[in-house]
Amino acid sequence: MVEHRAGDAFVKIVYAKVQSNGRTEMVPLKLYVDGSLEHITASLFSSPESEVTAQTLLGNRYLVQRVLGQGGFGRTYLAADQHRFEELCVVKEFLPHSIEDSDLQKSRELFEREAKLLHEIDYPQIPKFLAYFEEMGHLFLVQEYVNGRNYASLLRERQQHNAAFSEVEITQWLKDLLPVLEYIHDRNIIHRDISPDNVMLHQDQNVPMLIDFGVGKRTIEQLQRSSDSRKHSIVGKVGYAPHEQLWMGHCFPNSDLYALAVTAIVLLTGKQPKELMDSRTLFWHWQQFVQVSDHFAQVLNTMLSDKPNERYSTAKEVLAALESSDTTIVSEAPVVTTVSRPAIVQQSISALLIEQCERELVNFIGPVAQFLVQEALKNAASSETFIAALAKQIPNPHHSIEFQRKLSRL
Fold first, then answer.
1. Residue pLDDT, tens place only, 262-309
2. What is the distance between the alpha carbons of residues 106 and 92, in angstroms, rounded to a whole number?
3. CA distance 202 to 217
4. How far is CA 374 from CA 21, 216, 314, 386, 389, in A?
5. Contact call for residues 90 and 68 (beta carbons, < 8 A)
6. Which residues are designated catalytic?
7. Long-range CB contacts (< 8 A, 24+ apart) of 180-186?
8. Among 212, 215, 234, 76, which Cα is nearest to 152's?
9. DSSP characters for 130-172?
10. Distances in whole angstroms, Cα of residue 372 to Cα of each of 42, 84, 235, 299, 307
11. DSSP structure string for 337-364
12. Among 9-23, 61-75, 184-198, 311-325, which is the least confidently predicted range?
């Protein structure tokens, strides 16, 4: 049994010893969580202690005013630029706790390469990357300060009056942000962390700004991949990032489109992603919480497709779809047609069996089990073929047989 506390939050994982081929393996049986999952996650991946406090002068230039935020990769500070008449800026401190000493030099090289790439971005709805430097053994990045509020904060404010964002507002919001994604994707840059927290409404210009490109996060990812090919992407929020990004480590331009669509339906409904998706089938059911036009729903549902090849390929295609009354979009890219979702559950397979299969499969292969159950349901003609298809996904043959025998008895 493993326990972890993060303030008032508490998580406990119960393991069981399983004998297989003369080897003893620890298999997770149950997970108990008491408290905010975000709080627990932030604590589990918290950064080392920083030596930076208010009024610290960084780089002999940036006077720290206060902490803006903290995550698994470091802290973000509001600072005054002493060389530019106290102009406010954002300083990000890179404090990864998971990098070995032997990888520090490589992390510096990757961080520098990424910072240079992001410094070349010049778009009015993206904060300008101003500089980077190293001090006290830590890496720092300096960005333009955006005077405004993120959409998570704006949504909370509306919810206090039992309101959310309208279809008209979100349609314009998408039209404002899609050109931003088109710009970065054309330069082979994928944001990979779009959510209400990472889109801000500029107070003066009244336009959405795309922030937090996660500099440093990808540096860690590349280091981990080089040391262990089995590890996948660590960038992206659960609920917002698509399956191929979180569970397989693959990321495409339309992975950003998926996250943008999730953010859109959260703003439309005022509900979190886990409330908008059926945890058993993994299908989105957001439309039961808000009334929108059929055409707009079709555009969002295409962006939300689980399979990348069933989504729009580019931001440009989504823009065209929003302007069109036809659900078939023709562009320079291959033709993309809105694809109907398959039936949720085969009539011959009981909901109880599906739930039990998912629960057992998670014990053997982890969170990707939910995705595999969904895929198996699409082609399963009977309970037997459904169970057999899932058993094939378990690498250990003994576990595969055990899974099949146990579920066949239900």
1. 999 999 999 999 999 987 888 899 999 999 999 999 999 999 999 999
2. 19
3. 25
4. 31, 34, 25, 10, 11
5. yes
6. 193
7. 180/123, 180/125, 180/126, 180/210, 181/210, 181/253, 181/256, 181/257, 181/260, 181/315, 182/314, 182/315, 182/316, 182/319, 183/121, 183/123, 183/126, 184/121, 184/123, 184/126, 185/253, 185/256, 185/314, 185/315
8. 212
9. EEEEEETTEEEEEEEPP-EEEHHHHHHHHHTTT----HHHHHH
10. 28, 54, 21, 25, 12
11. E--PPPPSS-TTS-HHHHHHHHHHHHHH
12. 9-23
Smallest CA-to-CA distance from 312 within 126, 168, 182 is with 182
| Sign (positive or negative) of CA dihedral 159, 160, 166, 171 | negative
Number of H helices, E strands in the chain: 14, 14
How many other C-beta atoms lie within 10 A of the C-beta of residue 254? 29
Cα distance between residue 170 and residue 178, in whole Å: 12
Q: Are 245 and 192 in contact (CB under 8 A)?
A: yes
Residue 269 C-beta-side C-alpha neighbours within 13 Å? 21
pLDDT, tens only, 100-113: 555 566 666 767 77
Per-residue tokens: 352: 């109880």
**What would the two tokens of residue 64 be?**
């720290």
Pair of tokens at residue 82: 């002493």
If residue 66 lies in a helix (H) or strand (E), which one and from where to where?
strand 62-71
Sheet holding 87-94, edge to edge: 57-58, 62-71, 74-81, 87-94, 138-144, 129-135
CB 257 within 8 A of CB 312: yes
